[in-house]
Amino acid sequence: MDKELRVIISGGGTGGHIFPAVSIANAIKAKYPEAKILFVGAQGRMEMQRVPAAGYEIKGLPICGFDRKHLFKNFAVLYKIWKSQRMAKRIIRDFKPMVAVGVGGYASGPTLNVCANKGIPCLIQEQNSYAGVTNKLLAKKADKICVAYDGMERFFPVEKIIKTGNPVRQNVLESPMSQAEARQSFGLEPDRKTILFIGGSLGARNINNSILQHLDMVKESDVQIILQTGKVYHKAICEQLEGNKKPALLHVTDFISDMGAAYKAADLVVSRAGASSISEFCLIGKPVILVPSPNVAEDHQTQNAMALVNRNAAIFVKDSEATDVLLKTAINAVCDDEKLTSLEANIKQMGLQNSADTIADEVVALAWGKK
Fold this sequence. Notes:
The protein has 16 helices and 13 strands. The chain is α/β, with parallel strands linked by helices.
């Protein structure tokens, strides 16, 4: 094994793809500090900033998805796919990877296709319970497929599947604060029941409105609420809450940098149903109400949510109903200690530990020819 380990990791487009990719890279580096790792992403997408910020080199491809509403625009898309294939060939020729990892997203298509055609072993990681289009297309060429949910043989050859779970942020798992300290860090009372509402970094309109349209219920509930509004909605919400409208027990912020402290502060979380977030809730055993985003491919967040709901490990509220029923559902749940205990026990059973390390071991085994 004196040969230098060289790994190419491709994909992105959303944080749900980028974070697992960086976590896998970090796990490989922890085991093999001299390993050379190159990322390949899509030009103009968030990976082009997030990956260098994590300390890794990235090359960008001009790849994008098909426009299903304006079919005539797809002539340009076809050209971009052809150009991306050519660029991927050049990148792979120059870098000479021993193994390729695809985490979903447009860029992983041409990158892993080229690697597979050159005989370079490939591993794909599927975060969701409903497989993404790119990963489904790559499945036949992949040597191993790492998944987080049962039942993925619906999409992939069963003999290639390894259930590893999704990598999660370590600071979420290892918050040094007590629950009282975490609540005080948000300016809240240390001993009062607390609900955390989060709609992702951009925010979620109906999750925000579930609180803003029921401020009297917040005041009467005797429950503390942390609301991450998202940057898009924050200014308008602050203006709406000016004067005497903001309840004393409501803490409003546009973005939470220390999510570990936020989770620790909360007795209950209200969240979208992204794969990475769900994996975090499972590992920390946090009771959660899931409000799947309706604006995702193949409605995969609903599929993610139902994987927990069907095991009594989460509560489900439709986005279209959230404004009317979400806050009342959350207050009722957080005041029901028996319900919280049941949700905590059930969701914790679904957590898979050390996912990034497990995936890294599979990647390295492929690189050294140990399928």
